[in-house]
Write a structure and sequence with these properties.
- Helix 3 runs antiparallel to helix 4 and helix 14 packs across helix 15.
- By secondary structure, the protein is an alpha+beta fold.
- The chain folds into 3 domains: 191 residues, no CATH class; 109 residues, Beta-Lactamase; 157 residues, Alpha-Beta Plaits (2-Layer Sandwich), CATH 3.30.70.
């Protein structure tokens, strides 16, 4: 058993003090035994008892009660205080028996009272002392009793008959008392084990509530949903009032019924599915938390999160914390980081990584009829770098990027995939017109270090190659670009290998 022995011993000590207090009252009550017997003598009930015996019983009990009262005040939980009370009662009963007061069941009063101490040692002492005094009293009173009973041939015959019955009764009472005492101890130990479990649970709950209070300061909304009591409670409210949750008719908490009115219209359905309390427990089973992000029409992005507080042994949540927190700034930083990771630093066009990821997404679905891939390469960049420096070369790359971005516009996305290499993914029914537009923008461009920019442009339209894959279209666009580059260098009479 999981018992705090220090607390258990403290309980036994406090119990011993209480029992000693009650036993002292019992001793004072037994002072009336003398007057009670005297009344019996006067009434003719006790013919073989003298008034002297009555006085002696009361006088001795007064003295013993005073001694025990002193011990109780000075040593309330000590073993000898308990032993003194039990011994006093045993001696009283033995003397009454010796004085010819007929006693049978009363012999077992003291062992019975000793069970109240919840102490095996005191119980064994009470039983043994009781049996010794019982035998002694029986032996001392045997001659007198045998003389009154002609059916016995001798004192020994009477004594043996009497103690045989006493012995059998003592064994029965001892066994019964021992079982009762063990049951009492087991019961108290069980209570202490349960008490310790409750205290541990209270500590855990207190710690959880402390954490919940801390969470309440962090989140915009904090709602405690208890499936066992079927209630919801806002931990941010000063009153922290609990509201009933009807799981048969209710799919959403009061908080979410209000929040749904602030969610972007195109996200309402997803929000309602995520916050459905009828399916929540199964979705959260064996998990610590689930979360989802939505857009508030007023304050921007917010994160809704369900956290398991308590669960059954098989992981089904019984109490859950529901929180919402504004993450608009976080989302903006996240989007900015994604944009930086997907953007070419020099040209501000999308980079090669973005191009590859976009192609992977495109490959997952059938191509649109107006899908086109463009491949673009700047002409003469090596010559500009060698003759005018890399600053001029960078200006040429930026100029090409500007012309490409201006041409693509909102029809698609433009990428810088290498030093002087660019790609574009667009949706247009006239790819040739876009190529001419790009060349037109290039002719109009003039830089600080270089007056002219020319680009070789190739493309592959899905409508012209309906059997081609995305990878095939990319290769076709590259081949088309290189054909145009060859024409450009031939027209200008330039050795391409040197450029």
């Amino acid at each position: 058993m999981n018992i705090n022995m220090t607390e258990y011993e403290s309980f036994l000590r406090e119990n011993r003090i209480k029992v000693n207090g009650y036993l002292n009252k019992v001793l004072w009550f037994f002072v009336l035994t003398g007057p009670a017997i005297a009344a019996g003598i006067k009434g003719g009930i006790f013919k073989d008892i003298t008034y002297t015996t009555c006085i002696l019983i009361s006088a001795v009990l007064i003295v013993m009660s005073l001694i025990h009262l002193y011990l109780y005040h000075q040593f309330p939980s000590k073993t000898f205080t308990c032993v003194f009370a039990l011994t006093t009662l045993n001696v009283l009963i033995a003397y009454m028996f010796y004085s010819h007061v007929s006693i049978y069941i009363t012999w077992f009063l003291v062992p019975l009272l000793s069970l109240l101490f919840c102490d095996k040692g005191l119980y064994f002492y009470a039983v043994i002392m009781n049996f010794i005094l019982m035998m002694t009293s029986a032996w001392l009173s045997a001659p007198y009793e045998a003389a009154l009973r002609p059916e016995y041939d001798s004192v020994m015959a009477y004594f043996v008959d009497l103690v045989s019955g006493f012995t059998i009764e003592s064994i029965i009472m001892f066994s019964s008392g021992y079982i009762i005492g063990k049951l009492i101890l087991d019961y108290f130990k069980g209570l202490f084990e349960q008490h310790n479990r409750i205290m541990d649970q209270e500590k855990i709950m207190a710690e959880k509530m402390r954490l919940l209070d801390s969470m309440a300061e962090i989140y915009d909304n904090v709602n405690l949903i208890d499936y066992e009591t079927q209630t919801e409670q806002s931990l941010r409210d000063a009153e922290q009032k609990k509201f009933g949750v009807d799981l048969n008719a209710q799919t959403h908490t009061l908080m979410n019924q209000k929040l749904k009115n602030q969610v972007m219209p195109d996200q309402v359905e997803d929000f309602l599915n995520f916050t459905n309390i009828k399916t929540l427990r199964s979705r959260l089973a064996q998990r610590k938390l689930i979360s989802a992000d939505f857009i508030d029409v007023v304050s921007g992005w917010f994160r809704a999160q369900y956290i398991t507080v308590d669960a059954t042994e098989d992981g089904i949540p019984t109490s859950i914390i529901y929180t919402t927190r504004n993450v608009d700034e976080e989302k903006r930083r996240e989007e900015n980081l994604i944009r930086i990771s997907m953007t070419d630093e020099m040209t501000r066009l999308y980079n090669r990584r973005c191009f590859d990821e976009d192609l992977m997404v495109i490959k997952e679905s059938p191509l649109a009829a107006d899908f086109v891939i463009f491949s673009i390469d700047v002409n003469g960049l090596k010559t500009v770098n060698d003759t005018k420096g890399h600053v001029a070369g960078d200006e040429l790359i930026k100029g090409a990027a500007g012309c490409l971005a201006l041409t693509v516009g909102h029809k698609g996305k433009a990428y810088r995939t290498g030093g002087d290499e660019f790609m574009a993914i667009v949706h247009t029914d006239d790819a040739e017109a876009m190529r001419k537009a790009l060349h037109g923008h290039a002719k109009e461009w003039h830089g600080v270090y270089t007056d002219e920019i020319t680009m070789s442009v190739g493309y592959a339209a899905y409508k012209d190659h309906p059997e081609a894959t995305v990878d095939d279209l990319e290769h076709i666009a590259d081949a088309d670009m290189y054909q145009e580059k060859d024409r450009f260098y031939k027209e200008r009479g330039i050795d391409r290998r040197q450029h």
